Amino acid sequence: MRFLFCILFSLATTVAAQETVRTNDVTTPDQGDDRSPPDARTIVEIIDQLYRSDSSYSEVAMDIVTPHWERTLEMNVWTEGTEKTFIRILSPRKERGMGTLRIGREMWNYLPKVNKVIKIPPSMMMSSWMGSDFTNDDLVKEFTFAGDYHFSLVQPEYAQDGVLYIECHPKEGRPIIWGKVMLAVREEDYLPVWQRYYDEKDNVMRVLEFSDIRALGGRRLPSVLTMIRKTEKGHKTVLHYKELKFNVDVSGDIFTLRHLRSRL
Amino acid sequence: MAKANTAVIQTEGLTKVYGEDRIAVHALRGVDWVVEPGEFTAVVGPSGSGKTTLLNVVSGLDTPTSGNVWLKGNPLSGMTGRALSDFRRDHIGFVFQAYNLIPVLTAAENVEYILLLQGVPAEERQQRVHELLTQVGLEGMTDRRPPDLSGGQQQRVAIARAMVAKPSLILADEPTANLDSETGSQLLNMMQALNQETGMTFVFSTHDRMVMDYARRLVRLHDGQITGDERK
Amino acid sequence: MVILKIAFRNIFRQKRRTVLTMLTMVGGFVLASVSIAWSDGTYNDVINTFTRNRLGHIQVHYGDYLDRPTLYKTIAAADQVGEAIGQVEAVDAWTPRIYSAGLASAEDETTAVHMIGIHTDREDRTTRFNDKIVDGQPFSPGDTNAVIVGKGLAQILDTSVGDDLVLLSQAADGSLANDRFTVRGIVDTGEAMKDRSDLYIPLATAQEFLVLQDRVHEIVVTVQTLGLVDPTVTVIEQRLSNDTLTVLSWKEFAKDFYVAMRADQRGMWITLFVILLIVAVGVLNTVLMAVLERRREYGVLKALGTRPGQIFGLVSWEIAAIALAAVAVGTIVALLSNHLLSFHGIRLPDPISYGGMEFQEMRTELNIRSFVIPAVTVLATAMASALCPAWMALRTRAAMAMRLH
User: Fold this and answer.
1) Is C179 on the interface with A (CB under 8 A)?
2) Does residue C233 lie in a domain region?
3) Which of A26, A135, A199, C288 has the fewest Cβ atoms within 10 Å of its own Cβ atom?
């Protein structure tokens, strides 16, 4: 789940981490026979830092598909560190101007129609964010595979050539609802192919697929992420990164309730 | 096994044993007996000689251990309980020693009872009941219930009831035992008269001298065997 | 029939014994009748309180809404469906509802709520909703942005009548429904759990808010009497003739409650059994004594040519006559006491709690059942108890009987 967080609101944690990513970026194209054998830790650290930076600005389109309706939300997203996120919805018209502000574990929604800021109560954290297949909780969680999971390279039955598989089990005491997470990454550049989230009984609960790798914010990243909930037939949410900038200027009052309450 | 003869009662090798093995009581030991129509017969003998048993077996109220009974040529063996009931209703009249009557019915109703069972029409019933109660000298007491009648009167009602359906046979088990001698003789006189008038067959069991005096035939029973048979 | 005459007269032979036997039967009858009437009265009281309070006797949903509710399992053209139901003769009232989850935000507090869209006047006619409003006003026709909140919810939101609330929910078209409402009233339904999350809005507003057009999630129906529920379910199914709609009686949609009630009713049968055991023992005693006393009489009757069946009948008729008389007397006594207890219920020192509701007074219900069941069982028990003695009577050996002086 934390991954989603990364996706929408990529954040940089440490310079060191970025170094790792960059090192990787540099080495990836260098495919030769002398490449060292894949190391699980290296891979999960790459995955963890893929979309992170000190700050970011992105323009995202979110297609939500359900058996009953389909709609697309367009939004701008600002992030700062791992703590702060600000989202402003641009379309459709009905939702235009709605905003979400997150600081740490607290979240507020702004409803322009009634000019009201609503603080999301803890009981609603598992509810859908804006009708998507992501929950409010997905925006708040800050777990990393490297820090919060035990992980190892595995060779599952469905393994394909050119893809590496990492099985992650949450460490004891972490408030993580998954029993297991499987990561699939491309052997050539360690970019994610998909992530599967399992419950305690080893049933796939949801799948996040990565596609359409392009240059975004100076990195090569999958620009389309598709979240499919296996528990709800016919439901999926597709994120398209149209624009992504890392290390932008987020000074001023972007991450304030006053800014949240301001009209577009 | 029907016997084509005119006898009212015929028995052949009649035995009756109560109980089993060592406590067995042999009430009847091979009784061969014939009663012709119109007889006025007394079966006599001391207590326990088998008189009552004989009458019970002859009327189908009890079944013999062995031997056969024919009533008017009909074998009783093989008749169902229901057929026996119907046979008794239509062919045998009973007079018992005491407690003869249905206590909740009036004298007239007691007499009428058998006619009701037979399904005789109401008008005929009324007439016959009245006729018989008059015959036994009880007119005016027809609506009394047994507790309101004397012993003799009760026996008269019993006799009227025994005769009302015009049976071929009337069995009377010690009919005078509970009566004083005067009442007893009145009753016997009456029965004798009825026997002569109607030709109905009467069979008594008794150890009453007076009954023996009235009887025209005496059958002596001792230890379940006929030890004497005299006609007057 | 002469046998009947004898049987009837035998009744008066031992008057005291007959009276005692009859009293046993009358007592058994009245006890059984009152306990059934009482059980039924309480049962119906509980069910009526339970169902009329919120659930209704019959509910109509789309498909498996009840088991797996979603915003999208709706009854289309709800008005027409409702009108068709309303035309069924036994139907007392019907009301459409919409259910949705949402977020309610008052001045400072925000909490998850269970939104219920209710018809501004049908709901009251069906479940007496307005009687449960403890503060403020009920909805009036034409109300739009008004809400009535559960008592507990009002406390959680720290809101009172006249305050504003913002509601947030996901509409059927995927959009984020949000609007401002005024608290019109506060309701105490007696179900504290629900009152902590339930929030009522006028049906038309709910339909617009959630973009449901003319659709609803549920139609709740009440019928005139509980006994009419099952046949009415069938009639409604026929009238609607729509396979996509599920029509259920309270026995199904409140299955746990129904099962509990059934278990409760089983207690009644145990009571009945004990009462009848007493009757049986009483009857057996009387008849056995009478038969033993009258063995000679049966002997005489047999000698006179009475058929075994007739002797059996003689004994049976006597008991049947006593039992019939007992039933007649019992009916009168039970009618009086049941009638009385149906007005003046017995107040319990401590109220019983059932399904979240409290009951303090137990009343009887005057119904045919509470007379038919005791009548049938008293008669059957009496006759069954007479069977054995009657059999003994018919088996009386005239020969033996005659000897007993």
Assistant:
1) yes
2) no
3) A26
Same domain, C288 and C209: no
Residues of chain C found within 8 Å of residue B117, distances taken between Cβ atoms: 2, 304-306, 310
Residue B122 contacts C where some CB pair is shorter than 8 Å: no
Task: Give pLDDT tens digits for B186-231.
Answer: 888 888 988 998 888 999 988 888 888 899 999 999 988 999 898 8
Q: In terms of Cα–Cα distance, which of A26, B153, B86 is closest to C303? A: B86
Interchain CB distance below 8 Å, B62 and C399: yes
- Burial of residue C111, with CB atoms counted within 10 A of its CB: 0-12 exposed, 13-18 middle, 19 or more buried: middle
CATH number of B9-231: 3.40.50.300
User: Tell me, what's the pLDDT at C403?
Assistant: 53
Would the CA dihedral through C305, C308, C313, C319 be positive or negative?
A: positive
Q: Is residue C84 part of a domain?
A: no
ipTM: 0.84
- Inter-chain CB proximity C305 and B103 less than 8 Å: no
To which H or E segment does residue A99 belong?
A: strand A99-103
Chains that touch A (3 or more CB pairs under 8 A): C
Cα separation, C9 vs C16, whole angstroms:
14
Band of pLDDT at residue C389, cut at 50, 70 and 90: confident
Condensed to tens digits (0 to 9), the pLDDT of residues A143-197 reads: 788 889 999 999 999 989 999 999 999 998 888 888 999 999 999 889 999 999 9
Tens digit of each residue's pLDDT (9 = 90 or more) over B12-46: 999 998 877 777 888 899 899 999 999 999 999 88
Q: What residues of C are in contact with residue A116 (Cβ under 8 Å)?
A: 105, 166, 178, 180
Q: Could you please report the per-residue DSSP string of chain B?
A: ----S--SEEEEEEEEEES-GGG-EEEEEEEEEEE-TT-EEEEE-STTSSHHHHHHHHTTSS--SEEEEEETTEE-TT--HHHHHHHHHHHEEEE-SS--S-TTS-HHHHHHHHHHHHT--HHHHHHHHHHHHHHTT-TT-TT--GGGS-HHHHHHHHHHHHHHT--SEEEEESTTTTS-HHHHHHHHHHHHHHHHHH--EEEEEE--HHHHHH-SEEEEEETTEEEEEEE-
Asked if A133 reaches chain C (Cβ–Cβ under 8 Å), the answer is no
**Would you give per-residue pLDDT tens digits along chain A (264 residues)?**
334 434 443 332 333 333 334 334 433 434 444 456 678 888 988 888 888 888 899 999 999 999 888 999 999 999 888 788 999 999 888 889 999 999 888 889 999 988 889 888 887 777 888 888 888 877 776 678 888 999 999 999 998 999 999 999 999 888 888 899 999 999 988 999 999 999 999 999 999 999 999 998 888 999 999 999 888 888 999 999 999 999 888 877 889 988 998 876
Q: Which residues of B touch C306 (CB under 8 A)?
A: 85, 89, 117
Q: Which of A98, A113, A120 sits opposite C179 (nearest CB)?
A: A113
Choose the closest CB to A118 out of C103, C173, C174: C103
- Inter-chain CB proximity B113 and C304 less than 8 Å: yes
For residue C58, list its beta bridge partners. Answer: C221, C249
Residues in chain C: 405
Mutate to test the interface with A, among C168, C197, C212 (most CBs of A within 10 A): C168
* Domain presence at residue C70: no
Report which residue type is found at B41: T
Domain CATH for C179? 2.40.70
Chains B and A touch (3+ CB pairs under 8 A): no
Of the candidates B161, B32, B71, the one whose C-alpha atom is nearest the C-alpha of residue B108 is: B161
- Characterise C24 by phi-psi region: left (phi > 0), alpha (psi -120 to 50), beta (else): alpha
Tell how strand A192-198 and strand B217-222 pair up.
unpaired
Domain hosting residue C316, numbered range: 2-50+258-403
- Identify whether C293 is part of a domain: yes
Q: Which residue of A has its CA nearest to C112?
A: A124
